[in-house]
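PROTOCOL LOG
Step 1. Enter all chains and additional molecules of the complex.
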Amino acid sequence: MEGKDIQVQKKKEVEPQGEFTQEGPFFIPNVDIFENEDNIVLLADMPGVAKDNIDIRLEDGQLLIRGKVSRDVPGDYVLSEYSIGDYHSSFSLSAIIDQTKIQASMKNGVLRVVLPKSDKSKHRKITIKSHQET
Amino acid sequence: MAIIRLRQPAYPGAGFSSGRFGKNLNVFENEMHRLFHKFFGSDLAAPHSTVFPPINVCQDNDNFYLTAELPGMEPSDVIVDIEQDSIEIRGERKIDTEGENLCYHRREREGGRFSRKINFKDRIDTGKVTAGLKDGILKVTMPRAQESQPKKIVVKTE
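Step 2. Run joint prediction.
Step 3. Record the structure below.
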């Protein structure tokens, strides 16, 4: 097999803001954020979160992401290398995002959010015309 | 200076009995409990492995249950080998390139190949093992072999 060996990334625990009715650890997902000409794309690793258990909302220019996981475990632990907890994350959105056209999808525990850039912010090529003298 | 916000008890009914100071003590005790766990708890309770993927194993009288976090992986990318007393998980996590001319703001997700072997002290009934990958979590249920299941012996009168 080609490619490098993968190292485990320790889950980053977070103290959530505000009051929560649920106890237990919360984690920040590992994310990739990249930008192309038309969109900003966010990918977040959230293993254990089903499509229906994800909550994405826009509040005051913030993109809030919450993913719920089941904490049920069968039987008693013999080996425990990772903790189970919900995912919480927030990102500030700049004005260049067209907030009405944000799309999100979930596959195999990875969330994908596509944030289209508004027309205003797209690079525009300005053609220079020769000045017509009258 | 940090402001410590008092929260409701993590475990209702835990701690001291509710007397005159009972409630406050409860909150205080839970706060100490939480702080202790914040500093020492997670590392003491769960020695985090540096080998991918992170694995949890549970057991009951009939089965071993293994779960592993493999976000973004398809079932065809994971190979699970079962032997009578061990399980091996292999594969490669690929992070797809999303095209040319991209500007990355953050890049935390990692790809690469992995291989892990876990040994069990008891025998497994290899014919009845089931494995599934859902929402980025691999779940393997391994029934214990008959001879390693706890036996109940009925005592008769003679």
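Step 4. Note key features.
Chain B has a mean pLDDT of 78.
Chain B has two domains: 1-48, 55-148.
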